[in-house]
Amino acid sequence: MAELGGEAEAAELQRLVAAEEQRARFTAQVHNFMEVCWDKCVDKTGAKLDSRTETCLANCVNRFIDTTLSVTNRFAQIVQKGGH
Amino acid sequence: MAELGGEAEAAELQRLVAAEEQRARFTAQVHNFMEVCWDKCVDKTGAKLDSRTETCLANCVNRFIDTTLSVTNRFAQIVQKGGH
Amino acid sequence: MAELGGEAEAAELQRLVAAEEQRARFTAQVHNFMEVCWDKCVDKTGAKLDSRTETCLANCVNRFIDTTLSVTNRFAQIVQKGGH
Amino acid sequence: QVKVQIAVANAQELLQRMTDKCFRKCIGKPGSSLDNSEQKCIAMCMDRYMDAWNTVSRAYNSRLQRERANM
Amino acid sequence: QVKVQIAVANAQELLQRMTDKCFRKCIGKPGSSLDNSEQKCIAMCMDRYMDAWNTVSRAYNSRLQRERANM
Amino acid sequence: QVKVQIAVANAQELLQRMTDKCFRKCIGKPGSSLDNSEQKCIAMCMDRYMDAWNTVSRAYNSRLQRERANM
Is residue C68 pLDDT above 50, yes or no? Predict the structure, then answer.
């Protein structure tokens, strides 16, 4: 591999670290969704995931994110109004 | 704000850090109580917390602390007697 | 205690740290087993653990370890085959 | 005033735990969007969670003060 | 390909959580060995857990992309 | 002897988990004080938790030794 100058190397390293951190956050979030959605959507474990379970899992992720956004926005409003 | 000498400043800083740590411990403990007491006391979430739920929550905190003290004291006795 | 030379002392210290780490891992693992097996095996808490509960707890530890090994081996096979 | 300050200091942790509890309470089988009744349930659950947080916080604070007075 | 890579990157955490979920699902009262039906249940549960992981992962990724497009 | 030592080494973690499990087991709806039956239940639950801890610990230790012997 070609040698990189000090600055370019540092920038490249920083980019790699940032990408790695983003992937770690993504993965941690998926573990978190699994904790909630596995129990909600998967009753029996048959030969394959049926389409109802697949839909339930995808909806579960999306509704959980909707809930997070809704809770966060409402909380911000309450805080701005200065009390609840 | 008046300038502080080195020592007074260090003492002030130490006091602030200690207060912050105490607040963090308090908050962590409240999260912990919520984990136990929310499921025990809050069945339905109506237009407001009724007084029965409020009493249940306050009792839950106090009985949890009683339990912690009782468990800790009994454990200390067992350890002192050198076996259980 | 006799004084140790620098190298012997370092080796001894390293041995102690390793032993302490191993004990911490063991203990963490026992806490983990307790989290799973207490709820599975202990229904009522009578005057003593009956032998059925004792057997259940010991089996629970061993079956959990079997499950871990089985899951890990199967996972390694899937990864080696390059997809699932 | 004070209650909101306490809440803000640990807002992220509070929001995560509150979201988790209210999602579990209000969403049975997750559908293709949050329907009206689910949204209302979440808003109420949030308010009750913060009420409960304040109640728990006050009860803990009183107990700490009583314990200190007895020392 | 990609899915396996994601899985390997966090293999240890995944294995722990999967073992925990599948043990709870498949083992009622733990006996003196894993019997055949328990072993089959665990293998199926693993496969479904990884399928579910991939489904959840894809759904999350799509959502992130949609949110970014809306910004 | 040994069992108590193990317990002391990680006393804080043990006390927290034991308190949590025994509170959940013994306290239904928390009242205005710990009544007699709750207090007895907690004491028994503690003893059984420590018995169970020792049983689990021994079982794990035997298994580790068996695995090492097979290597």
Answer: yes
Where are the domains positioned within chain F? Answer: 1-70
User: What topology is assigned to D1-70 in CATH?
Assistant: Helix Hairpins (1.10.287)
Q: What is the pLDDT of residue B66?
A: 97
* The model's pTM: 0.84
**Which of F44, D9, D67 lies closest to B31, judged by CA?**
D9
The rounded mean pLDDT for chain C is 88
Burial class (CB in 10 A: 0-12, 13-18, 19+), D7: buried
State the Cα–Cα distance between residues C37 and C26, nearest whole angstrom. Answer: 16
Report yes or no: A45 and E48 within 8 Å, Cβ to Cβ.
yes
Run of H or E residues at D5:
helix D2-9
Backbone CA torsion sign across E7, E10, E11, E17:
negative
Average pLDDT of span E12-41 = 94
State how far the Cα of E29 lies from the Cα of C80, in Å rounded to an integer.
Answer: 33
Dist. CA B19–CA D1, nearest whole Å:
19
* pLDDT tens-place string over residues F8-64: 557 889 999 999 999 999 999 999 999 999 999 999 999 999 999 999 999 999 999
CA distance A74 to chain E (A): 19
B78, two tokens: 């067992």
On whether any CB of chain C is under 8 Å from the CB of E58, the answer is no
Segment C2-8 shows an average pLDDT of 70
Query: Hey, are the CB atoms on D48 and B65 less than 8 Å from each other?
Result: no
User: Residue D1 pLDDT more than 90?
Assistant: no
Q: How far is CA B64 from the centre of its chain?
A: 10
Contacting E with CB below 8 Å, chain C residues are 36-37, 40-41, 56, 59-60, 62-64, 66-68, 70-72, 74-75, 78-79, 82-84
Q: What are phi and psi of A42, to 5 degrees?
A: -105, 105
D33 touches chain A (CB under 8 A): yes
Q: Do A75 and D11 touch (CB under 8 A)?
A: yes
Q: What is the pLDDT of residue F2?
A: 42
A46 vs B76, more confident: B76
Say yes or no: D48 contacts chain B, CB-CB below 8 A: yes
Torsion of CA A41, B45, D6, B34, to 10 degrees: -60
The answer on pLDDT for E8 being more than 70 is no
User: Under a CB-based contact definition with an 8 Å cutoff, are residues C32 and F17 in contact?
Assistant: no
> Do D52 and B38 form a contact (C-beta atoms < 8 A)?
yes
Closest by alpha carbon to C38, among B40, E26, F50, F6?
F50
Instruction: Report whether E14 contacts E7 (CB < 8 A).
Output: yes
Q: Which of C4-13, D23-32, E32-41 has the lowest mean pLDDT?
A: C4-13
